[in-house]
Structure formats: structure tokens, C-alpha cells
Amino acid sequence: MAGQDWLVTNEGQCFDSEIVYQDEDLQRPYRLYRFLTDLEDILEQVNDDQMRLKLICPLVRRLLNSSEWLQMNYLSPDPATGWSVLMLYDEPDFPITVQTVVWSAGSISPIHNHGTWGIVALLSGQEKNTFWQRSPTSEFPDRIEQIGDRLLNPGDILCLMPDAIHHLESIGDEPTISFNLYGETNYTQRFEFDPVQGTAKNF
């Protein structure tokens, strides 16, 4: 699955991530357990989140190219909420979130950050991500302003720094399906934002 790699900074700027890909061993399947082991090695050896994302992103693409079952392992969106989440791996004391997420056509998420680094690989559909940055005032310390957007197509990968603020919209007539990977969440730093009221709340 080919596509474009993007990096969203803590300030909401979205750049071509310019990730360098190594030659893959195409004779050997890259299975989920190998991916998780490689991921754990990176997290133990690299402390900088932006460097972690640059190292993990090629592994995500390799995993999706090698393990087609991941692209077919998802739940239909809940009619009430417009979205669904299927956890693909969950282990105590391994604080990594690996999941597939589905948004029904036309659904729009709240404006939020994740309180950790994250990677979203779009598998199907089209997803518009709108990016925001903090623009505090003395009266509204949680004020934010919109600074740009990016339309993701199948195969595109979006790498998010911990304080990157965004919301997504499922574009078109079909649901969006994505493979999502997140680090250990700092819940005191994870927020939903209201740009009209200039407020934020933990979630």
C-alpha cells in the first residue's frame, strides 16, 4: 500500500515527513508480533517523539503491506455515535494502543489532541484532517485557531506529535477505515477543545 507520509507538529503544522525507507525482506512476512517487538525496541532506545515517529512510520507501512488481514479486521460504525474502534492488541504493562477505527460517511470528530504520539494510516475512504494551534489570551487561555488541513487518501500515513490538535471528517459516501497506533497517553494533557467558547476539557 503506497501513499504519502505526513508529520503534524505540536504547533499544528503539517509537513511532508521525508521518511527514508529501507529495503524490505519480501520473502518473510512481517507479522504483528515482529512489529510489536521492533516497536518496543524503538521506544526503549529513542526518547525524542519526532524521531520515534520517523522510525515507526516505515514499520507501520511494512506491516500493512505484509499483513492484509489487518485491513479487513474492523467493526461497522455504531449508528448512534458514527464511529467504532476495534482493539487489535492489548497487554497489561505494555501501554501501546493498536486499533482499527471506522467513521461513517459525513462524521466529524471533536477537536482534540492525544496527549501522546500517534500514527493514523488510512486504509479506505477519504478523511479530511483540520489542524489547530493554541492561541491563548489572558481571558481565554485555552483558545485555539485553525491553521490548515490535509485530505488523506488510502495509503497515506499521518504522524501526530503529542500536542498536535486536529479534528477529522469522513469525506464522501463511504466510511473511512484506519489503522491507528498510539503511545502511552498522558491523560492530564489530553483535551477536547471548543473554539467558539475558547475552552478545553480533559477526556
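Above is the first protein from milestone M3; the second protein from the same milestone is given next.
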Amino acid sequence: MKNVGLEKMLSKDQIRKEIGISASERFVNFYTPLHWHNFIELELILSGRGEQILNGQQTELTRGCLSVLRLTDFHQVDPKENLHLLNLMVDDNFLSEEMLGKLTASNTLFFKLNDEQTDTLEKLFRLCMAENKTPNPDLRYLKHIIICIFLKVLKLSPKSKGKSPADERPIQTALLYIHMHFRENPKLSDVAKIAHYNASHFSHTFHKELGTTYCDYLNMLKISYAKELLISTNLKISDICYECGFTSHSNFLRLFKEKIGLSPMQYRQKAIVKQNKE
């Protein structure tokens, strides 16, 4: 598959702003370059054949394949035969905190469904599509259907071992927001408001609960994401720096070496050598 620069798909270009979702049926016969979204996307393959790289892992796309892409996932799609799929895009504000927490705690969400599971999800997707096309969609009805879809997805996902950080701490709302939006460099004061704390109390509580400062935690998420991009893409180091949310290339290089013990280039080269041996 091709491997090119990472692109960002924006909700303002994809989703009906007034309701926070978009549902559509598509026939895809063109290559979609590596990208990520600032919304949650589900794609259910009904027919056709193709290849996908999701978070660095290559998978075959055939009938019954379901991909769930969160704000921290990245993928590219290369159709081999015309892919017929149903697509659902949901603004993360549309889902409950509990639902987002469960989605965030799961690993890569890619499933191969049997015919019964595929038919069930197809019906739910089409109910969303039909309501989404109306001039004044019923948000309560749409929300009910979408919750059903995500509950189906979570039943497919292996139960994660232990709890996510957001499940155990009183600042769970803030932690969830940080994990979803770390590339946007959320300010401490803004995240404190989400947790209903003032900035000083939030900073103290954050350090007490997690054993690290807000800034260090944010940088840790960025570095972890940089490691994924270094292994899974051929993006330039400078591009990875900005895709992860760093605003200074020199600061990125310094922090990466400080935390990982290798420069980004050394880390990538070491990963390539390891992959070639396997």
C-alpha cells in the first residue's frame, strides 16, 4: 500500500453541525491517503475487497469488516475491487462520557463480523441514514440508534484488562478529554473548567492523582503517539512533530531523546531493523 503524509479530516467538512452526526452509503474505488479525524468514524464493508492500514497494522477489507476510528486512530484505504460501505461519523460531544471512556480504553477497534452481525449493523446504519436525510432529524431517535450501534461494537471488543485512568480518578472527565484531544494542546485552565476545578486546584489534584504534572502527562501522550507514527508511517520527523501537537521541532527532539533515550530517527531505524528480523 501507499504511504504518504498524514492528513486531517475535519468534522466541519464532514458532519451536519446542527446534529453532530453524518450517515451515508458509499462506493469507494479510489485510494484514501493516511489520515485521522477530529470525530469518531465507523465504516462497515458490505461488499468488495481492499486493504487498510489502521494504526500501522495492515488488514484485508471484505464483507463484514468493521472499522471504528477514534480521534487518536489513523488509517489509509486502498480498494482492490469497488468497496461498498456504510459510513457513520459522530462528533465526540454526541456520545456520553461513559461511552467515550469505554471506547478510549479499548485497543484498535477492527472486527470481522459474521453475516448475522453484519446484517444487524447494516439495519441500524440505514435507520441512521434515513433519519439523517430528513429536514429536521429527531435527535433523541438518532441518539438511541447510535447508542445501540456502539453497544454492539463494545460487545465485540475484548474486555480490557483493568480500568482506564478515566475510570478510577475523580478527574475522569478531564482525563478523557486530554486523551481525546492531546494533539490540540489543551490548556490546563481550559481542562480544569471541564473538571469543574479552578486551575490551581486542578493542577494540585492532577499531580496527586497521577504522580506527574499536567504538562508532563500531555507530553507523554504526544511522545507515545509519535512512536506509533515513527513505526507505522514514512512521515518526516518534522511532520510527526507537528502531527503530535508539538509546536517546536527542537523541543520535540529534546523531549523524545529525554523520555525514550533515542532520537526519533534512531528509534525508527531500530524499529525497522527489528521488523526485518521478524
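Note on the second protein: The chain has two domains: 7-156, 165-277.
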